[in-house]
Amino acid sequence: MSNVVVLECKDYDIGNVSNKLSDGFGMLGGLKSFIQPGMTVLLKINLIGPKASDTAAVTHCEFVRALTRMLKEYGCGVWIGDSAGGAIAGIAPTGRGMEVAGMKKVAREEGAQIKNFEREGIVEIDTPDGIKGKIYLAKPVFDADFVINLPKFKTHSSAIYTGAVKNVFGMIPGLRKAEYHKIAPDPKDFGKVLLDIHRSTKIGLHIMDGITAMEGEGPTAGNAYPAQKILMSTDPIALDVVGAAMIGIGIDDMPILYAYRESGMGEVDINRITITGDYSEPPILKGFTLPKRFGSKKQRNGRALTSVISFFKSRPVIDLKLCKQCNTCVESCPVQAIDQKSKTIDYDKCIECLCCHELCMYKAVKIKNDHPIASLIKKVVMRKY
Description:
The protein has about 375 residues and is α/β, with parallel strands linked by helices.
């Protein structure tokens, strides 16, 4: 049986959050049962894009601060990392997202390091039984001694609910996320991609920020809901099953979890999950609004989604007028896709991780859409940021 700790936390006051996190660790065997002094701990946040923490679209910066301070006091090094969403439209504003969400400020004040997954390189993983033969994940996930997944409690207009399981998708850096959405437009198949990531990584703990949740048309366009909860577990599937139960839905309503039910990884049966902390059963969030799509018998149009992704297809291109021949792009490319002399990119090799784009000091590496109209749309969107 899996254990999920559910705690009541009324606000983001650092004292309140710290006390609750301390209580939660105690119920899971104590911090020492997971981490030892001297370890480097990666906090994998939810950074959907350049959104402020109070929008409920991202893991709240003060939630991250409380955990960072606890780990630093314990003698650990702390990394705060993610790759932002938005890749379908050819936008991956991770650096800007870290700034807007307050993560850079937290890191600066608490002595942590920001790990922009677009800048850190990749690890190639073979997934012969999954939906894709290979998958490319951010290197810090493997370099850290311990990884803590920090999802946000949110609705999702397509997946209905998004939590600990789906948050690992941000471990894929850059524009490659769009490719996986394209090859797995059906939620059941997309769940297999997520399962591949979970199997390929060793995430030691999952702590969900549900102090302020998002209801309605999440993961970005919903409304803030004062859920006042923190969920903790070593089992991401069990955590999500409990989180979903809090808003009145079950695993049958979440196709992305079907692959986990078939694989036997994690606990999907709510009756076999022990709930501890401030509750002994899932606390119901009264009046919580689900996405409009919930309850509809109409299936998501996979072809339409694939068409949208194809329309917004983008890739890095090197502007030779701005290039200073420093070769940082060549040296940083993890798959050696850039020719040193001509600076042309072999797109058959390119995995769109955006290391070249992020590390170019002269802004010579641009993200270009294949379709000219898509480029115009992207320019309009980016003006907001």
